[in-house]
Structures are given as C-alpha cells and as structure tokens.
Amino acid sequence: MHLGHSVAAAMWAMTALSLGFVALRLYTRIHIVHFFGAEDYLYICTGVMLVAFTASIQVAVHYGLGTSFWTLSLDETSNAILWTYIANTFAVTGNAMAKLSLGVFLLRVVQMKAQKAALWVLNIVTAATSTALVIMVWNQTTPVKTSWDPLRTPGTWNIEIKPMGVGLGEVSVNDYTLNFAKYFAWAGAEIAVSMICLGLPTLRPLYVKGTGTTLYERGHTAQQGDPELAQFASKPASPTPPPPSARPERAAEDTQLLPQLGRHGRDAGDGDGYDRHAPDTAEQGGRSAGPGPKRGQFGRHFRAVCRAAEPRLAARGTRWREELRGGVEEPDE
Questions:
Q1: Concatenated DSSP letters for 217-264?
Q2: Where is the composition biased (Basic and acidic residues) (predicted)?
Q3: Which residues make beta-bridge pairs with 170?
C-alpha cells in the first residue's frame, strides 16, 4: 500500500478510538458524576485538534505526502508541504491542550500549596512553549511562503528546525514529502495515546454503574447509587455525616450493666482508698454533671471492676475505659 495512504488510515483509526473516549467521558461527567470542569473542555478541544490534524494529513496525502519529493510537480510539492505545516500547528496545539487538561485536573486533586504552585508553573510553561513553537513553525523563512514553496519563492531561512521522531531519529529534509510521512504518524499517535490515558481514569464511575462492582471488588455487589462515585467528581464532595455515637441496643445494654458495674466497684473497692459514700446525683438512664467519684480514684478501681464484672465486660475493657474516664457517674444503689 502507498505509504501516505497507510499513514492516513492509521491516523483515522486512532482518531476514531480517541473520539470514542471523548463520547464516553462526556456521558460519564454529565450523566453520572454531574460535573463538567475546565479539564473536560480542554479534553474536547484536544479531540477537535486531533480531528483537524488527521484531516490536514489526509489533504497532504492527496497532494503527495508519502511520495518522493522529486516525482511530484511543483504545485503538488508546494501544497503537500503547506498542509503539513497546517497539520503541525494542530499537532502542537493538541499536545499542549492534552497536557493542560491533565494539569487542570491535578490542580483539583492536590492540596499542598507548593504542589499547586508547581502545577501552575508547568501549565504556564507548557502553554508558552507551545505558542512559541507554533510561531516558529510559521516564521522560519522570509518571506513565509519560502517554507513550503522554496523552488519558486526564493528567500532566507531565519530558523532551522530539525524534526525528531520517536524511533526515527532526526528526520532528513532532503526528501521532505517521503521522509516526513512516518513522523506525522508518530505525532498523531502521541495525541491519541494522551487522550486514551486521560480518558480512562474518568470512566471508572461508568464501569461501577454498569457492572455494580469496582475493579478491586469483583464478586461483591455494589449499589447503583454508590457514594463511591462522588470521589470521581472534580468538585469537592459533600461531607458525610458522622454515624451515631452508639446504637440504641448498645445504649440499652450499657444501662443494664451500669448498676452491676457500680455494685462490683463497691465490693472490690474496700480498703483501697475509694470513698464508697461519695455523693452521687446521677439520674436514672443518664449522666450527671454533679459530684461523683474523682477521676483518679475511678481509674484505680477500673482494673478491679473488670476482674469482678461479667466476662463480656472484660472483653470490652478498652472501650469501657474511654467511656468511664469520660465521666460516667457511680449509679445509686
């Protein structure tokens, strides 16, 4: 197959895959997460730039991209090179928007001020370098037309840009229309891979909703309205109300055990300095702010209480210690 046609076919396939991720991300953000931020707009713009880039390469292939420079007419050569310059503009802009989309998303995630400042610096540098590169592409020669029509428009070269390709090394400009075809395929792949990597994490709520399970909880059913989906929204999630401090059945059980606790505490406290006749104003079923056993005395008796009380009380010793030190009064006999 003709090299130019192979490049165009591969780029259209990557573009279609990327647009599929754009559609899925839009559905997830609008209908599931119910939040649409600046990073999503940048992601859409990246997809638009990829479509424009692929379309420009298709036009360049029509004029002779992928064919030897020396076998084309002057008009074909000029038009092919011109459309590759247009494609380069979309490629640089698309790559910048993909990086900015990631940067804006991370700004919503990080909390430290130093991290936010670093991300802002990186975003500004990315936008500035991309803008400068686009300007350089279109101002390499004087006049500008010399860049894509050197044989019929004499001029001088102001900037000499040496394109580099992953796996290709430095691309020779001696046969521009033939040697640069693979370079544009790699440029399109870079944008497509960036879009896939940026789109995959945002699709997890869609996966959870569709399957009812998370990636790490296969086999465990999750509710369709799982609050786990909220963590994928870029806006801050509403605070979750704290659970009740104690269950009703737990409170009833504790009320029954408190008289036993007081009785065992008195029996175990003979001769150890505990004032068994200290005044007690505890109301039935509640806690009083009035006088009662001192905290130090109550703490010394706790070990004796655990030994004398029921076995289930001893098993819950740590939890009881916290509650007793918090002010539980000795109930009336």
A1: -TTS---TT-GGGGGGSSSPPPPPPPPPSS-HHHHHHHHHHHHHHHHH
A2: 264-280, 319-333
A3: 164
